[in-house]
Write a structure and sequence with these properties.
Length: 431
C-alpha cells in the first residue's frame, strides 16, 4: 500500500475513533456544572453552620481540615482523575492502574504527615477530631479520583454529575445532623468533609466497570506525567488556597479567629472556581481527543470556548460577590469580620485570573505538556507564598500576594500554549 493510502486509512481510523468517542458520551458541561454548584453549596452550608455551632478556635480547626483536604483533593487526587480522563480519551496505555498506585502512595505519606503535624496546630486543642477528619478526607479523595476519572474517561458525564450531587446531599445531611445534635458538632462537622466523598464514590462504582485493557503494568512515562499533573494542582492550590494555613501558622495562637475568618471569606470568593469545574472537565475530554486526532481546529475551538466561558463565569459573579460582601459575609460567618475590603478585592481579582489560568492549563494537559503547566503554577505559588510570608499582617500586602501569583502563572501558561500549538499539535505527540 502506498504512503498516501496508509495515511488515508489512518485518517479514516482516527475519524471513526472520534465519532465513537462522541457517541459514547452521556451528558456534558451543563450537568457537571450543576453538580459542582451543589458541591459548592454544600461547602457553604458546612462552613456557615460551623461558624455558628462551634467556638472560634474550633471552627478554625474545621476550616483547617477543609483547607488541607482541599489541598490534597484538588492538589493530588484531582490531577490523578484528570490523568485517567486524558489517557482514556486519548487511547493511551496504562490509564488507570499506574496513576492509582502512585496516588495510594502519596495518600499514605500525606496521612502520616497529618498524624504527625496536624495535632500540633493551635486549633487542635479546641477540635480533637482534626486528625481523624483529615484522614477520612484523604481516603475519600483517593476513592473519588478513581471513580470520577473512570467516568470522565469513559464519557459518562451524567453519572459524574450524579456522584457530585451525592457528595453534596450527604454533606448537607451531616451538617444538618450537627444542628440537631450540637453536642456532637465537633465530630460531625469534620466528618462532613470526607465521609460524603466516600459515600459518593460508592455510588459511582455502579457505573464504573474496569475494562481488561486498562489493567496494564506500571509505566515510567505515566508516573512522570502524573507527577506533573500533581505539581500543576499543588501549585494551583498553593496559589489560591494556602493562605489560610499560613495565616493560622503565623497568628493562630494570638488571633484564634483569623484563619476561620479568612477561610469563610476565601470560600465565599472562590465560588466561581467551583462553577467552572464542568467547563474544565468537558474541555479536557474534548481537547484530549482532538490532540489524539491531530485536529488543531477542533482543539482551538474548544480552547476558545472554554476560556471565554471561564472568563465570564468567574468575572461576573466575582463582581457581584465583591459588591455584596459587606452584607453577606457577616451573615454567613455569623458576626462581623475583621478583614479589610482590600483583602476582599484581592480574593475577587485573583479568582478571575486563576480561573482563566485553569482554562489555559487544560490545553497543556491535553497536549501532553503537563510539565510546562507545572512550571507555571509552581512559579505562581512561589510568588504567592513569598508575598504572604513578607506580609506584616492580613491586609494590602496579603491582597497583592493573592493577585500576583495567579497573574504570573497565567502569563507563563499563555506563552507555553502558543509554543505547544506549534510543536505538539502540528507535529504530533505521544497520547
Amino acid at each position: 500500500m502506498s504512503t498516501t493510502g496508509q495515511g488515508d486509512v489512518a485518517h479514516h481510523r482516527d475519524e471513526v475513533a472520534h465519532v465513537r468517542a462522541v457517541a459514547r458520551r452521556r451528558g456534558g458541561a451543563r450537568e457537571i456544572t450543576l453538580g459542582f454548584v451543589l458541591v459548592g453549596g454544600s461547602a457553604f452550608v458546612l462552613l456557615g453552620l460551623g461558624a455558628r455551632l462551634l467556638e472560634a478556635a474550633a471552627f478554625s480547626g474545621v476550616g483547617i481540615v477543609w483547607t488541607l483536604a482541599t489541598v490534597f483533593g484538588v492538589g493530588v487526587a484531582t490531577p490523578t482523575e484528570q490523568l485517567i480522563n486524558r489517557r482514556m480519551n486519548a487511547g493511551a496505555p496504562h490509564p488507570i492502574r499506574s496513576p492509582m498506585v502512585v496516588l495510594a502512595t502519596v495518600a499514605v505519606v500525606t496521612a502520616l504527615a497529618c498524624v504527625a503535624l496536624v495535632g500540633r496546630l493551635p486549633a487542635a486543642a479546641a477540635l480533637p477530631s482534626m486528625v481523624a477528619g483529615c484522614l477520612v478526607a484523604i481516603g475519600g479523595w483517593f476513592l473519588t479520583a478513581g471513580v470520577r476519572g473512570r467516568l470522565a474517561g469513559s464519557g459518562d458525564l451524567r453519572a459524574y454529575a450524579v456522584v457530585l450531587a451525592t457528595e453534596a446531599v450527604c454533606r448537607v445531611g451531616l451538617s444538618l445532623l450537627a444542628v440537631l445534635l450540637p453536642s456532637h458538632a465537633g465530630v460531625l462537622l469534620p466528618a462532613a468533609i470526607g465521609v460524603p466523598l466516600v459515600l459518593a464514590s460508592l455510588v459511582g462504582l455502579y457505573w464504573t466497570i474496569p475494562p481488561s485493557a486498562h489493567a496494564a503494568p506500571r509505566s515510567a512515562h505515566v508516573r512522570w506525567e502524573q507527577a506533573s499533573f500533581v505539581l500543576v494542582s499543588l501549585g494551583f492550590q498553593a496559589t489560591v488556597n494556602l493562605a489560610a494555613v499560613l495565616i493560622e501558622g503565623r497568628v493562630g495562637s494570638t488571633q484564634p479567629a483569623a484563619a476561620g475568618e479568612f477561610v469563610s471569606a476565601s470560600t465565599y470568593f472562590r465560588v466561581p472556581l467551583v462553577l467552572i469545574g464542568g467547563v474544565l472537565t468537558t474541555a479536557l475530554v474534548v481537547m484530549s481527543t482532538a490532540t489524539a486526532d491531530r485536529d488543531l481546529a477542533r482543539f482551538r475551538r474548544s480552547l476558545h470556548r472554554s476560556t471565554v466561558q471561564t472568563g465570564v463565569i468567574t468575572l461576573l459573579p466575582s463582581i457581584l460577590l465583591l459588591a455584596l460582601a459587606p452584607l453577606i459575609l457577616p451573615v454567613y460567618y455569623g458576626k462581623a469580620l475583621t478583614l479589610s475590603s482590600v483583602v476582599y478585592a484581592g480574593l475577587a481579582i485573583s479568582t478571575v485570573i486563576a480561573g482563566v489560568g485553569s482554562a489555559l492549563t487544560q490545553s497543556l494537559l491535553a497536549t501532553g505538556r503537563s510539565s510546562w503547566a507545572a512550571g507555571a503554577w509552581i512559579l505562581g505559588a512561589a510568588v504567592t507564598v513569598g508575598g504572604l510570608f513578607a506580609a506584616t499582617g492580613v491586609g494590602a500586602q496579603t491582597s497583592v500576594a493573592l493577585v500576583a501569583g495567579p497573574a504570573v502563572a497565567a502569563l507563563v501558561l499563555l506563552g507555553a500554549l502558543r509554543v505547544a500549538e506549534r510543536q505538539v499539535l502540528a507535529a504530533g505527540t505521544e497520547p
